Here is the input.
Amino acid sequence: MSVEATSVGQELLRKILDALPSPVFVKDQDHRFVLMNRAGVDLVGVPLSKLVGKTDYDFFPKEEADVFWKVDETVLTEGTTVAQEESLTAEGQAHWLLTTKSRCRLGDGNNLLVGVIQDITHRKLYEESLEQRWEEALAASQTKSLFLAKMSHELRTPLNAIIGYGEILRDDCHVIDPPQLQQDAERVVRSATQLLDLINDILDLARIESGRTVPRPTDIDLACLLQDLDDIMVPLAAKRSNRYRAQLECVDSIVSDERMVRQILINLLANANKYTENGEIELRVHKIDDGVSLSVRDTGHGIPAHMLESVFEPFVQATSRTRPSHGVGLGLAITQGLVSLLGGRLGVSSTVGVGSTFTLLLPDPEPVD
Ligand SMILES: Nc1ncnc2c1ncn2[C@@H]1O[C@H](COP(=O)(O)OP(=O)(O)O)[C@@H](O)[C@H]1O
Ligand SMILES: [Mg+2]
Here is the structure.
């Protein structure tokens, strides 16, 4: 081949290599770069003149260069073609590469290593995000299954009572004396009411979680709201020998969804009354820097420290049930859901045997331009 033909051939080869979107490189027997196309130079971020004659150790972190060197050595000595995924850090940026390396034997007995790279960083990141989303979906599905299992268990208890007493009434009504008859009928009604409460709670929670409950903010007159709560709480508290009082400090109104705020406070106050006997329950509403704080304090049983977070999960109860109508542990989950919808925060502090304080922080509404 003439000198001219060779140089034309080289020029053509260089043009073809530089036009390729995939990085291509050639190394000699001592692992030194002999050639790299434009895509390769762009990837490594070092000009060709500074690459030629250097090895991977001159550009990449040692642990990466160790891996490249080992594979190169196998390809150069054994002649096997190797395709493998590897990570490469160039100019401080991490890449995932699929690199195919093969050996090219020269006439003089020396070997060259030819590498062709495919940058698969985007694919890898996509795979990782898919994997993460899959894990999240799996965890959500497991949570739902657990929820369904607990819900079915809770539905079964009152249903069994209704069927049991219903059967007694059906089979023995002619032999049961009227007071007993009335007591059994009362049990059926109580269990059915409990069942309805449970179903209403589950529907409430589902509506909140599915985004079907939408807050409708209005100006809430706090004195008026507290008066309504007084009317509900004073007789309820008296039934358990509790003393109830409410305090409103330095604030007249807030902008929020009144129905939701009312439901949150009723849930917290009902809990305070349920888990307190012969004690005090206080609702305190006061202004804070960027909103309003509404706290419900009681001097009741308290919640053990290790349960303070989990009591907000559905069907989790820190106290053993003493009466069948004692609720099933959905109140705080619903409350937490409503608080999130309102953009607020709900916190709790409690000491066993001393009492608990649930604090709701409602932010001031964002100013409209
Ligand atoms: N004020 C409180 N004092 C003591 N324990 C409480 C209080 N509020 C909630 N808890 C605990 O948190 C649990 C979950 O509350 P909640 O979701 O309202 O369910 P429920 O009242 O139906 O049991 C309760 O079972 C109780 O153990
Ligand atoms: Mg409750």
The mean pLDDT is 93.
